[in-house]
Amino acid sequence: MKAVCWHGANDVRVETVPDPKILNPRDAIVKITSTAICGSDLHLYDGYIPTMEKGDILGHEFMGEVVELGSAVKNIKIGDRVVIPFTISCGNCFFCNRDLWSLCDNSNPNAWIAEKLMGHSPSGLFGYSHMLGGYAGGQAEYARVPFADVGLFKVPDGLEDDQVLFLTDIFPTGYMAAENCDIEPGDTVAVWGCGPVGQFAIRSAYLLGAEQVIAIDRIPERLKMAEEYGKAKVLNYTEVDVGEALKEMTGGRGPDACIDAVGMEAHGTDFMGLFDQVKQTVRLETDRPTALREAIVACRKGGNVSIPGVYGGFIDKVPMGAAMNKALTMKTGQTHVHKYLKPLLEHIQKGDIDPSFVITHQLPLEQAPQGYEIFKHKQDNCIKVVLKP
Fold it and tell me: Where does the Alcohol dehydrogenase-like C-terminal domain lie (predicted)?
């Protein structure tokens, strides 16, 4: 089969690799019909996530048709159209039983690597380094899905791929980010980053009852999408002092909740932003926390800071004094996708949201290297790339 394979920083290639096989009775093989390039994939592309190996198959946002099933999978049948959560979960452990699916104890065969860095291991992830399981991803023609009896979600008839593909990651991720804000009627929510996750965080904040959402970015097409599709008020951080603007827009109090939808490769316009880039380049700091710093300082006293943006290691000069003295609540984590599939599917079916609004580019799988470059450098007004095997 053809698959998108990682060969180093800024080097992905579409190669012919062996077809996946059933390895466990709970496995399934899925023929991929749609797959996407995620902002998290760019962290791999840029070389910032450790334990990648040459030839690793990328991709964790994918869906398709079941073509083979292990003997223990009884709730899905061959021919079913399915979406696949990017978090791999067993469905039976302490954490899965508490709806903490991305913390599954049984899906990361390389848990010992993650434990060295984090103390405990999260779940395995598709296409996202050997530290998180070394699983082949879904930017390919076929994929093996372990724990398929809990990891495959059947798509109802009448829904197109583009409407449901993002249930695999970015729609639940944006929704969980907003849910972590504990939004109450009348709240103002500020969202740093208007990429795909930020766009869904904006829409989700309104679904959960926010009165006002303020979106912060520097890319015109992203700000335009946040304003037109998300009905957000927008701030271009290269043109205004974000902290002062947020105070002015909230009567001096600050947003009730702040969402960092940027993560480890945030850009800054001040000296600290440049300093972060230098430190990250020479590996004195693994992640650039510009957006997180701003969110903590901007948030009102007693407010909530939600962090769906991916962080991979260590960050410097985080204003913990502000977080502690303002009594902020901070919530983060890889998304518990399984928890949100049914309620978010209902929003799609009722017409509350059509997630396909974020798609700007559709390319054949063979053009994945071009897609990565377009997405990384934000060329051609690119916000989201979907690949078609």
Answer: 196-265
HEC string of 203-251 equals: HHHHHCCCCEEEEEECCHHHHHHHHHCCCCEEEECCCCCHHHHHHHHCC
> What local confidence, expressed as pLDDT, does residue 266 receive?
86
- DSSP string covering 276-335: HHHHHHTTS-S-B-HHHHHHHHHSPTT-EEEE-S---S--S---HHHHHHTT-EEEE-S-
HSE-CB for 126 with a 13 A CA cutoff: 29
Cα dihedral 134, 136, 139, 142, rounded to 10, equals: -170
pTM of the model: 0.96
Q: What is the pLDDT of residues 257-279, one digit of tens each?
A: 999 999 988 887 776 766 677 66
Terminal alpha carbon distance of the chain: 10
Residues 56-93 pLDDT 10s: 999 999 999 999 999 999 999 999 999 999 999 999 99
Question: Dihedral (C-alpha) 351, 355, 356, 360: value to the nearest 10 degrees?
Answer: 140
Assign 299 a pLDDT band (cuts: 50, 70, 90). Answer: very high
C-alpha 236 chain-centroid distance: 22
Measure the CA–CA gap between 38 and 137, rounded to whole angstroms: 12
Residue 200 has which token pair? Answer: 């869904």
Q: Cα(306)–Cα(178) distance, rounded to whole angstroms?
A: 7
CA distances from 290 to 11, 261, 272, 274, 303 (A): 27, 11, 8, 10, 19
d(CA 354, CA 226): 14
How many CA atoms, within 13 angstroms, populate the side-chain half-sphere of residue 90?
Answer: 15
Tokens 């962290």 — which residue? Answer: 43
Q: How far is CA 266 from CA 61, 112, 214, 243, in A?
A: 22, 29, 18, 16
CA neighbor of 32 nearest in space, from 81, 87, 88:
81
Average pLDDT, stretch 38-42?
95
User: How many C-beta atoms surround the C-beta of residue 126 within 10 A?
Assistant: 29
Estimate the crossing angle of helix 220-228 against helix 196-207, to 10 degrees. 20
3-state secondary structure of 143: strand
Handedness of CA 224, 230, 236, 240 (dihedral sign): positive
